[in-house]
Structure formats: C-alpha cells, structure tokens
Amino acid sequence: MQAAINPTLINLSVVPQRQPLKVVVLGDSLVYGFGDPQGGGWVERLRCQWMSPDTVGPILYNLGVRGNRVIQVRDRLEQEFRHRGELRNRLPDVSIFSVGLNDSARVQSFQGRNYTEFNDFETALHSMLDQAQRLCNVLFVGMVPVDESKMPFQGCLYYTLADQFRYKEATRLACLERNIPYLDLFEIWLNRGEYWWKSRLCSDGLHPNVAGYEALLEDIRNWEPIQKLAY
C-alpha cells in the first residue's frame, strides 16, 4: 500500500528563486571598453564580478559601439537588445546609457562645428531617454574629462572640456527632468585633480587607460543605483 502524503509537507522543498536582472548597457567606447586590454572596460569588469553561478546576477549585456553618438544609440536601442539571448522574449529590467562625448567634438579645428549640433543633440537625447523609459528603468553614466593638449583625435576631432561641460550638463538636466539617476563622472574626476585624471587617460587623451577603467569600476560600483541592482 502506498504511504499517505502529508499535505503539510507538500511544496515545502520548493523554494522559488529570484530571476537575475537583465541589464543592457548602451553607448560609445566608454561602454565598449576601448583602452583597457587587461579588463575589457568597466562593463566587462563588472560583468565578470556578477557572473558567478553562485549569485543571482544581474546579467549584463554590453551594447557599446565605438564612435557612437546619441542619435545612433537611439536608433538602435530596441532592435539591439531584442536580439540578445534571454532578452529576445522579454524587455530588460534596466538600461544604462553612457553616450554624448562624440557629439561634443568639434570637426577640423577647435573653432569648427560640433559633430552633433547642440539643438540636434538635445532633441535626440530627449527622444532616446523617453523611448528608453517606456521600456524599462533607466540609469545614465556620464563622460570622463579629456586632455585637450592631446587633440586632435584621429587627425580631425577636437574635444574640449568646455564643450564636454555643455553637453554633459544638457544630459544631466534631461535626466533630472525624468528622475533618471545620473552619475556625473566629469565633475567627480575633475575634483580629484588634474594630475589624477590625466594619469588615467590613454595617450590619445580621450579614452581611459587600465588604471582609468579600474577607477571607473569603483566609481560605478559605489554608486547607489548600481548597488541596488546587485542586492
């Protein structure tokens, strides 16, 4: 005869597991990790720390493309992440953006036109953020300062701190209007002193070096919105 099943024991061994968060990171070379041959950039470094099978995530998807500007990130936003593994059948939980530096560059000289005219930048930025917020929660990681003395980049692009400030402030305010957390790396790095931040850039004066990405990782890991994702 089969033993009777004690109803009080049913499903006690079944412990529901929380699914890991799916996080997409979209942007330019700062997301891609250019300049960090050791760790692959801050996104890759963070992904490696979060990918242990003993944890519940989050799962990071690096969707950085070198040279991207805001309009390019906006235009590829939804199509990109819908073809990434587990995201094919669902929206991400969080999207993290880091873009805008390439828009601020001036073409051919320090007095040339901005690569993306400021009004066009604001229009594309607002459109991108609005689109992203309709899909999931949004965070924004700002740009790091550049070394003007190393310009031009690739013989034709001139990046300046003044242009960076103008474009990053427009981004910060757009995020503020939408209650999107914004990490102002530009101000954080400048406040640590010129020697500190210049020593963490590659010889091109634009991309962080290995030490720069190590510093970026710590800044981003210690940012409260990121800490909330991990726990």
UniProtKB/TrEMBL annotation:
Domain SGNH hydrolase-type esterase: 25-215
SUPFAM superfamilies: SGNH hydrolase
Pfam families named among the record's database cross-references: Lipase_GDSL_2 (PF13472)
Protein name: G-D-S-L family lipolytic protein
Protein's organism: Planktothrix mougeotii LEGE 06226
